[in-house]
Every structure is written in structure tokens, then in C-alpha cells.
Write a structure and sequence with these properties.
With 259 residues, the protein is of the alpha+beta class. The chain folds into 2 domains: 72 residues, no CATH class; 139 residues, no CATH class. Helix content is 34%, strand content 29%. Strands 1, 2, 3, 4, 5, 6, 7, 8 and 9 form a 9-stranded mixed β-sheet that branches. Helix 1 packs parallel to helix 6. The longest helix has 20 residues. The protein is elongated. The termini are far apart. The relative contact order is 0.14. Keywords: Signal.
Length: 259
């Protein structure tokens, strides 16, 4: 007896849903969560966070159809690309938790070093310090993320276009040597990386930038790291919030716990 096509389609859909539910286990360990989320770009994770915080559901098709893979595919292959891409994105969204998975924001920046200065009249004494300057596109400073037709403006609390950090002698001398800085007039191009957890999002009142609506999302930073980009990236300086454990540290703890 021939099975009706509608019944076959219903069975396939049910199987699909069961697979997704099995993948979206609420008791997934932090280590397993880290492994799963590595398969997704920072833009995808930012979009996951936005839809979680606004309690809305994304239309994953709009994430897939603008991609080069979809545009360059034969018409007969596009439906399969949408189906496979949707399955992948649904798995990520169902397993994404804003309180567990941070966003990593990378930005070019310039760095300057200043020697300590003594008090002079009303000017207080200043320690050896580092001045970090990020490219400011607007006020407040935001970092853009894009998936499909969704544009986000991620605003990281406490991060400003120009920030000053005091340095002890060891850190000052190390950065000065690695970046070959001679005077305070020397500016060096570096990469800043901010690790932050999304906290709030507004899905109703976007910012308008050059005719493009950007939805604001506020994130709280836990790591600010500065890197020298070379043949091998060199960590110049890092500020980590007390109590934060990175995915790399969790990997090491898991490794040592097995020994």
C-alpha cells in the first residue's frame, strides 16, 4: 500500500523536531556548551542573544538566502541549502543561553604609553599609564553585527572611545619593548578583544545609521585583552573580571580533573 505523501512529510517533520529537542538539553555542561557554540560565528551568536532577550523568534531563511553559498547554488540546490542551514541555526538557537555564552568583539585600536608625571600645581601626579583609543563611529560607541537583514549595535558598558589604564613597571616595560615604543608620541596599531555577556536589547526602537536600522543591544564586559598582531599573536595586556572563567580555563580544569 502506498503511504500518502502528506503522512511521510509529517513523519519527517516529527523526527526533525525530536532531534532538535534531544539536542537542546537544558542540563548541557558548560564545557559541552562551549564546544557546541564554536560552530557559530560571533554575528550568529549576537543574533541569538538579541532574539533571546527580546523574546522573539528569528526567521532563519532570511539569514541564509543572502549568503554567497545560496546565491551561487543552482536553483535545484537552494531548497536543500535552506533546509540544512535552518536545521543548523535552530540547533544553535535552542542551545544558546545568554547567561552562559559571551560574545567576543574584535576591533582595531591604537595604543600609547606615557611615563609617570609628578604633581604640578593643580595637576595631580599620574602613574605610568597606557592610553587605548578605539574607532568611534557614533556616540555611544557601538560595535556592529549583521546576520541577513538584521543589524545590531552592541554597546558594551564602560567601554569608551578613549580609555586610560595605569600600568606597573613590569607591564609597562614589556609593552614598550614588544611594541618598540620610544616616546609618548608613538602610536601603535593593535587588536582589542572584548568578551561580554549580552544583557538587554531593544527590538522596537532601532538606531538609524546611513539609512540602516541598527537594533541596540547592551552587553556587560568580563574581559578586555590587547593583542599584538604578528606572525603569532602576542597578548600584551589583559583585564579579567573577578570570578570569570573562560572556556579555555574550563578546558584546562576538565583536563586536569581527568588526570
Amino acid at each position: 500500500m502506498e503511504i500518502p505523501l502528506m503522512f511521510v512529510s509529517a513523519l519527517r517533520f516529527l523526527s526533525f523536531v525530536m532531534v532538535l529537542l534531544a539536542l537542546a538539553t537544558p542540563h548541557r555542561t558548560a564545557h559541552a556548551q562551549d564546544d557546541l557554540m564554536r560552530a557559530y560565528s560571533e554575528s550568529e551568536k549576537a543574533a541569538f542573544a538579541f532574539y533571546r532577550l527580546t523574546d522573539t523568534l528569528p526567521d532563519f531563511r532570511t539569514w541564509i538566502t543572502p549568503t554567497e553559498a545560496y546565491k551561487n547554488a543552482k536553483p535545484s540546490q537552494r531548497n536543500e541549502i535552506v533546509q540544512q542551514g535552518t536545521l543548523r541555526l535552530q540547533q544553535g538557537f535552542l542551545n544558546f543561553y545568554v547567561e552562559r555564552t559571551p560574545l567576543t568583539i574584535k576591533s582595531p585600536a591604537t595604543l600609547q604609553l606615557f611615563e609617570a608625571s609628578e604633581a604640578d600645581g593643580k595637576t595631580p601626579a599620574k602613574p605610568r599609564r597606557m592610553v587605548l583609543t578605539l574607532p568611534a563611529m557614533a556616540d555611544p560607541l557601538y560595535f556592529p553585527f549583521n546576520v541577513g537583514d538584521l543589524w545590531l549595535a552592541v554597546i558594551v558598558t564602560g567601554v569608551k572611545p578613549t580609555m586610560t589604564f595605569p600600568l606597573d613597571d613590569a607591564k609597562y616595560d614589556r609593552i614598550k619593548s614588544l611594541m618598540r615604543i620610544r616616546t609618548s608620541n608613538d602610536k601603535r596599531l593593535i587588536r582589542a578583544e572584548i568578551v561580554a555577556f549580552a544583557k538587554e536589547a531593544d527590538g522596537k526602537a532601532p538606531m538609524e545609521v546611513s539609512g540602516v536600522p541598527l537594533f541596540p543591544m547592551v552587553a556587560s564586559p568580563v574581559v578586555l585583552a590587547l593583542w599584538k598582531e604578528d606572525e603569532e599573536d602576542i597578548l600584551l595586556w589583559e583585564d579579567v573580571s573577578p570570578g570569570y572563567v573562560s572556556s579555555r580555563e574550563r578546558e584546562l580544569m576538565l583536563l586536569f580533573s581527568k588526570e
